[in-house]
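Supplementary Note 3. Input sequence used for the single-chain structure prediction.
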Amino acid sequence: MSAAAVIPRGLAFLGPQRYQHTLKDAVEALGVAGDLATVTAGWQERETEVEELHEHLGGRAVNLELHRRAENVFAADMELAAAHHARQALLREMQAVYSLRLDKALEALTALEERDGHPRLMAEERASAFEGVRELDAAHAARVAEVHDEFLTRWHPAERASVAGERTEIAALLSRCEALAIAGGHVMVLANRLRLFDVLALSGARPVLAWSGGAMVCAENVLSFGDHPPHGSGHPQWLDRGLGLIEEMTFFPHAQRRLDLADTPRQSRLARRARPARAVVLEDGATLTWREGHGWAAGDGVLAFGDDGGLTPLARELAHTETR
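The predicted structure, written as discrete structure tokens, is reproduced below.
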């Protein structure tokens, strides 16, 4: 299920919380009775605006303030800050080049899918074109992982005094909490701050609850998506390596607002590119939980894309898998 060094005792992946709050119910479902360490770094400068979250959790939210702590680190450690910014600049350039190549590859694949011709010839050409897209995705994901690994190997951020001091404080806050809750927001900022302080290692086996962008970050891979962006093609892109808490699913929160679900050929390409992971949609009110000794439970609003581009309740797929 997980590639993490220590597997949490429970997991909950939720849909957006703005219109329908399900976090409290998920906390109860995982049997968490005490405080929860909260990560709102994806909100950036709004990180401390947690009154609504604190109230929803009955006053049990303990804000780890990872965004503020990262700013403290970069202000105190100019060498690490420069290395971090250089890495981010390289990743942005890599993303731009990948996006350029991906657009052309998907344009060719779409044209072939829409073209009439000899059945065997067209089937072979479509399969070859799709495999080319998959290879491009895989090569980009591998390069991104390599950049992250090189950064860790060279700079050992957790061992630097600027980071180690903040990690000591984070560990002290976590020691009084029973679970870790990861909110949404800017996905890349969220992933970077969680990695900088290696929060999952500090959290250990505590249950993890995550929603919206937070759920995306918990998967093995993070994909950006949105069929009608203000700029660009809107083709889903491999964006970053996730935290690896779950390998068999990649998450797409509030897909009904961000994807053209009626365009099943387009969503079919998305689902097949995500394989072997399931492409899982987390709509408003969605709750997907895993408990040690109990397995998975998927509620309403948790849907999975099939290879045909259609959506089915994930609970149905899970039941089918468990009975095979």
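The chain has a mean pLDDT of 90. The first strand starts at residue 10 and ends at 14.
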